[in-house]
Amino acid sequence: MRDFGESLLVYRPPIDTRSVKEVMGQKSNGNPEKALNFLTPHQKWGIHSTYSDNLLMLTLGRGGPVVWLSEADAKELGIADNDWIEVFNSNGALTARAVVSQRVPAGMTMMYHAQERIVNLPGSEITQQRGGIHNSVTRITPKPTHMIGGYAHLAYGFNYYGTVGPSPSTRWSSYALGSNRDEFVVVRKMKNIDWLDGEGNDQVQESVK
After folding, report:
1. Is residue 75 part of a domain?
2. How far apart (Å, rounded) are the C-alpha atoms in residues 15 and 2?
3. Domain of life here (predicted)?
4. 195 occurs within a structural domain
5. Domain limits at 88?
6. Which terminus, N or C, of the chain has the lesser number of Cβ atoms within 10 Å?
């Protein structure tokens, strides 16, 4: 731990995940784009196997996946509350409704984890496929100091490890992730809302079967 400068808790600037620059403006839909820090905290509407597509849970939320934005960033991007937006980088893309809130700091966006893409979700303008989830734009970034194994709760596993980890969390393993706050995404308002229910989509679905 000392060799990596981990003896004391200190501030470390975000690592460069190199997932934004190569996609900025490459597939423009005419709307403004902006790179924002992407967080995936634990959500209020569902936990683990109790997903937010449960009817009782949906009465407490908006009935589909949402991404939270600051009022300042939303104004700059021409996004109003409940607009369909697209979030993407070189790892993938997702679509969701925008929640514009004064609770979110400028320069940051967040999507609560465990939001299934089976409810109320159009296709992505980037991928031409349906939606995506918070995992679509994140990737695993191992940290050597987290591979010190064999010490009970300090052991690690790749099923819950990397930038996708929700933070903050009530579980120790979530706090331990090395770069879960370092991912950046490009956010923009969607121009064409395509539910992928036409003839072409039928052919795609048939090929998947």
Report:
1. yes
2. 20
3. Bacteria
4. yes
5. 14-139+183-208
6. C
Q: Which are the contacts of 43, defined by CB distance < 8 A and separation ≥ 6?
A: 52, 112, 113, 114, 115
Residues 61 and 53: their CA atoms lie apart, in Å, by 10
Q: How far apart are CA 111 and CA 67, in angstroms?
A: 5
Amino acid identity of residue 20, one-letter, is: V
| Helical (H) or strand (E) element with 67 | strand 66-70
> Per-residue pLDDT tens for 3-26?
877 778 778 777 788 899 999 999
Q: What's the domain count of the chain?
A: 1
Gap between the Cα atoms of 149 and 156, Å rounded:
7
At 142-200, the pLDDT tens digits run 767 766 766 666 666 665 544 333 343 333 333 434 456 788 999 999 999 998 887 65
